[in-house]
Specification:
By secondary structure, the protein is α/β, with parallel strands linked by helices. It contains 13 helices and ten strands. The chain has a seven-stranded mixed beta sheet. Residues 150-347 form the Nucleotide-diphospho-sugar transferase domain.
Length: 381
C-alpha cells in the first residue's frame, strides 16, 4: 500500500515536470533564437567599424604626402608631378635666382645651343587688324621651306602691352621692352620723330642682347622668310656682321639695310653697337641706319677690325631690288615702302606668288614677282 502511494506521487511529479518543460520550450526565448533586428544591428556595426578603418587609412595617407612635401620642397613628389610642379613656390623662387631678369629668361628659352636668337620687334600697330603684320610674318614661316622649326628660336619683343598680350596668346617667346613712359603703340610713319625714337630704342636693346653673350639675327616683321636663311649665312666665326642691302654690288658702297642682319657677340661688335648708339646725339633727326652708314664710311668698321659681309639681294631680297631667282631666294623685305597698310597689301601678294610658284613648277627660272604697286603709291601721299 505504501509502495503504491509512493509510485503515484512520483508519477505526478514527472507529469508536472513534463508540462513545465513543454511550456518553457514553446515560449519564445530571446537568448537562444536571434531576431531580424538583432541581425541588422550586427551588420550595421560591422559596416561602421570598417568605415572608420577606411577613414583612418585615408587620413594617414594624406598626412604622409603632406609630410613628404613639406620636408622636401626641392623635390616634387611623384604622386602628383603635374599639379605640384605648377604650384610649387620654391620652383618660382629658384627661377628668379637663376635668371638675372625677364630678358635673360626669354633669351634662354628662345636661343639655340650656340646661343643664337632670331629677334623681331612689334608694337600695337603690328598686331591689330583683320590681317595683322605679325600674323603675316608668321604665315611666312608656315609656308616657307624649312622655316617652321625656326619659330622655336624666335623672340618677339613687344613695345607695348597690347602687342605683348597678343604674343603670349600665340604661345611664342615674348619679352616686353620697357620704354620709360614713351608711347610706342601706334603706327610710326617712316622718318617721323616717333619712328626715329623707336629705332634708337631698338638699337639700345639689341646692344644689351650682345653684351649678354647672345648672337642674333635681327629681322623686321615686314620680312617674309620663304626659305631657311641659315645655309646662306656664313657660320664662320671670323665673320662679325652680315647685313642686308637695298641694292647689291658686293662692296662697301652698298646701301645697307638694318631690317635684316646677323651679328656675332664679341668685343668688336659690342664696341660697334656702343659707337652706333652714341652717334644718335651727334646726328639729330637721323635714323639709326643713317648713323651706321656714316660709321662705315668714316672708317669705324676698319678701326674695330670688323669682318663684314653684305648680303646679296639674290638671296635676301626686298621691294627695292627683287630677287632674280625665286628658286634660291630666302627672304623678301617690304623695304622702300612708307606705310604698314601698303607693306601688308604687297606682302600678301608676295606670299600668294610664292604659294603659286610652289604649286606650279618648283624649278621654273622664268617666274616673276607681281609689282609692288601699293608701296610705290605710298610715297605719293
Amino acid at each position: 500500500m505504501m509502495f503504491t502511494k509512493l509510485a503515484m506521487r512520483k508519477l505526478h511529479q514527472n507529469s508536472f515536470s513534463t508540462k513545465l518543460f513543454s511550456r518553457s520550450f514553446l515560449r519564445p526565448c530571446k537568448s537562444i533564437i536571434p531576431t531580424t533586428t538583432m541581425i541588422n544591428n550586427t551588420k550595421n556595426k560591422v559596416i561602421i567599424d570598417h568605415s572608420h578603418h577606411i577613414i583612418y587609412i585615408i587620413l594617414l595617407f594624406g598626412l604622409l604626402i603632406i609630410a613628404i612635401f613639406l620636408t622636401s620642397p626641392s623635390n616634387t613628389p611623384s604622386f602628383f608631378p603635374l599639379q605640384l610642379s605648377l604650384f610649387n613656390p620654391s620652383k618660382q623662387i629658384n627661377e628668379r635666382e637663376y635668371y638675372r631678369d625677364d630678358l635673360e629668361r626669354a633669351l634662354v628659352g628662345a636661343s639655340t645651343e650656340n646661343k643664337t636668337v632670331i629677334i623681331t620687334i612689334v608694337n600695337k600697330a603690328y598686331v591689330e587688324g583683320d590681317k595683322a603684320m605679325l600674323d603675316l610674318f608668321l604665315d611666312g614661316f608656315w609656308h616657307g621651306e624649312g622655316t617652321r622649326e625656326l619659330v622655336n628660336h624666335l623672340l618677339i619683343v613687344a613695345m607695348d602691352q597690347t602687342s605683348y598680350e597678343r604674343c603670349k596668346f600665340l604661345h611664342l617667346h615674348c619679352y616686353k621692352l620697357k620704354t620709360d613712359g614713351v608711347d610706342f603703340g601706334g603706327e610710326k610713319l617712316f622718318m617721323s620723330q616717333d619712328f626715329i625714337k623707336m629705332m634708337w630704342r631698338r638699337t639700345l636693346f639689341l646692344s644689351d642682347v650682345l653684351k649678354r653673350g647672345y648672337n642674333f639675327i635681327f629681322t623686321d616683321t615686314d620680312v617674309l622668310w620663304l626659305r631657311n636663311p641659315f645655309p646662306n649665312l656664313y657660320s664662320n666665326q671670323t665673320i662679325d656682321l652680315q647685313i642686308s642691302t637695298d641694292k647689291f654690288n658686293g662692296s662697301q658702297e652698298n646701301p645697307i639695310n638694318t631690317g635684316f642682319y646677323m651679328i656675332k657677340s664679341n668685343t668688336k661688335t659690342i664696341a660697334l653697337l656702343d659707337a652706333w648708339y652714341a652717334g644718335k646725339d651727334k646726328a639729330i633727326g637721323w635714323k639709326e641706319q643713317d648713323v651706321l652708314i656714316k660709321l662705315m664710311k668714316d672708317g669705324t668698321f676698319k678701326q674695330l677690325r670688323l669682318n663684314v659681309r653684305f648680303l646679296d639681294t639674290l638671296y635676301f631680297s626686298g621691294f627695292c631690288d627683287d630677287s632674280k631667282d625665286v628658286n634660291v631666294v630666302a627672304t623678301v623685305h617690304a623695304n622702300c615702302c612708307r606705310s604698314i597698310s601698303a607693306k601688308l597689301a604687297d606682302l600678301i601678294v608676295v606670299l600668294h606668288d610664292w604659294r603659286r610658284f610652289k604649286n606650279a613648277n618648283q624649278t621654273s627660272t622664268l617666274y616673276g614677282w607681281t609689282q609692288h604697286v601699293n608701296c610705290w603709291d605710298s610715297w605719293k601721299n
